[in-house]
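Researcher: I need the complex structure. Ligand is adenine. Inputs:
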Amino acid sequence: MQAFIEGMPKAELHVHIEGTLEPELSFALAKKNNIELPYDTPEALIAAYDFHDLPSFLKIYYAGMSVLIDEDDFYQLTWDYLEKAASQNVVYTELFFDPQGHTSRGVSFDTVITGIRKAQTAAEEKLGIRSQLIMCFLRNMSAESAMEHLVMAKPYLGWLVGVGLDSDEHNNPPVKFREVFKLAKEWGLKLTMHCDVNQKNTLEHIRQVIEIIGVDRIDHGVNSLESDDLCELIKSHKLGLTVCPVSNQFVVQSLTSNEIRQMLDKGMLATINSDDPAYFRAYMNENLIALQQEGDFSREELKTLMANAFTVTWLPEDDKQVYL
Ligand code: ADE
Ligand code: ZN
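Model: Output:
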């Protein structure tokens, strides 16, 4: 089964590029940029990864970004992820990035997006892995800041396929960003938002992303299973759900394999993703293997999960067919 999983051509639709920062690269960049890390070795850094819920994870994730300073740093970060993904037979990926996590530290939007873009182009040419970029807004920051960043992105619209919403969901409902997402849609961008697992008001948030924001996909969205109405809504809109098993294991102490099976049984378009693979120590193959082992998923079920991913990509229809 492991060889079957490793050999499958895969698409990954939920991965934060800043969440692919491996400890070794972190140390190399800290040295180059004269930044002092509070750990002596990459192993000591990994040992300090102590997360048990979303806020405790986010704290470590944002602290990790401090080593990313110039365009080359963003290039290297993105190249390393794309190289790793290609080595796991990921043939197509949609990458999130968090510009506010960088502009708030004095790193320019242009530096961030240009470094990422150059690596995407090089990886497609040299490794054959195709990718598109999704700009995420940090929901714990203001709607005004999100709007400023959307406007900042206007000269780079050709480099973006969509916008997303991530970070701490507590007291930051989707409707807070209604105007930002409305404008992004008018500019031709696709829309997605995180509805993390077991968050306060999660069912209301899932309803808002569908009925008020009009998203094209939902990140996580696992709690929708608690409501027949939401499941029907998700199915009728043909919305993909980007589920992240190993991430869920850390954040809510469950791989959510039962929930993923229920989604498949209901004909919902569940997909499997890594979220923040360097922090959760699991890329696509490791996520699929862990899920398969816990839930005893069949080859057919794994094929359905991967076909779902290609179905709900934001590729042009004709391009999608190449993979399906
Ligand atoms: N940013 C990076 N990973 C995230 C996650 N799993 N949920 C919310 N925001 C994130
Ligand atoms: Zn995420």
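Model: Summary of the prediction. The chain has a mean pLDDT of 97.
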